[in-house]
Amino acid sequence: MNDVEPLRQAIGRAFRDVSAERAKLAAQEDASQDDAARAVIAAAEALEVVKGSLAALVEQLGGGDTVPGAARAIVEAAWERLEGAGVRRDGAVGEPIDPSRHRVVGSHEDGSPRSDKERDGQEGHVRVVARVVKPGLRLGDRRIRAAWVVAGPQEDVNG
Fold first, then answer.
1. Do 141 and 78 touch, CB atoms closer than 8 A?
2. What is the C-alpha separation between 9 and 137, in angstroms, rounded?
3. d(Cα 58, Cα 127) in Å, to the nearest integer?
4. Is residue 93 part of a domain?
5. What is the pLDDT of residues 78-126, one digit of tens each?
6. Is the Cβ–Cβ distance between 138 and 156 less than 8 Å?
7. Residue 54, class by beta-carbon neighbours within 10 Å (0-12 exposed, 13-18 middle, 19+ buried)?
8. Is residue 11 part of a domain?
9. How far is CA 29 from each of CA 17, 25, 26, 33, 34, rounded to the nearest angstrom?
10. For the segment 38-62, what is each residue's pLDDT rounded down to a tens digit?
11. Most CB contacts within 10 A, which of 83, 100, 111, 113?
12. What is the CATH number of the domain that holds 137?
């Protein structure tokens, strides 16, 4: 019987070591995902800066306040590279507001004197995305940034 006890202890240590290694690998995987999420957000923010800079340059040159086709193509080509790496944009005009996917940063009024609370209680009142300020970002199945949107009544979008 005494020969079995050292074996039990060795097996117990081995199981604890395996569990500790699993936990360490899981923590490293989480850190890698966090690093990837930070990199994706930084790349998306850089694209917004590039887009804004190109728009400002066009405006300075007297081209109005729109980004011309060539500049838009540069930004879209960069997004295609991000999408090729598994990054997806989230949030589109006309979608119903979903707090788990949308961060409402502004609101379009429908001209009604009623408050949002009063309108929300009305049958058929649906608040939707009227404009996407910053797209949401997904990396695989993981949401890493909610879309920044301006909300409005459905009539503003369909109307």
1. no
2. 49
3. 34
4. yes
5. 888 888 888 888 999 999 999 999 999 988 765 443 444 444 445 556 7
6. no
7. middle
8. no
9. 18, 6, 5, 6, 9
10. 788 888 878 777 777 776 776 666 6
11. 83
12. 2.30.22.10
Residues forming a β-bridge with 106 = 150
- Cα(116)–Cα(109) distance, integer angstroms: 9
Domain that holds residue 142: 88-159
Q: Contacts for 154-158 with beta carbons within 8 Å, 24 or more apart?
A: 154/125, 154/126, 154/127, 154/128, 155/110, 156/108, 156/110, 156/128, 156/130, 157/93, 157/94, 157/128, 157/129, 157/130, 158/94
Q: Convert the pLDDT of each residue in 74-91 to its tens digit.
A: 778 888 888 888 888 899
This model's pTM is above 0.70: no
Q: Distances in Å between the alpha carbon of 148 and those of 3, 93, 100, 151?
A: 66, 11, 12, 10
Structure token pair of residue 27: 């923590």
Write a three-state SS string for 62-81: CCCCCCCHHHHHHHHHHHHH
Instruction: Examine residue 17 and state whether it is found in any structural domain, yes or no.
Output: no
Identity of residue 34: D
Tell me the one-letter amino acid at 157.
V
In a domain, 100, yes or no: yes
Closest CA to 148 of 96, 91, 108: 91
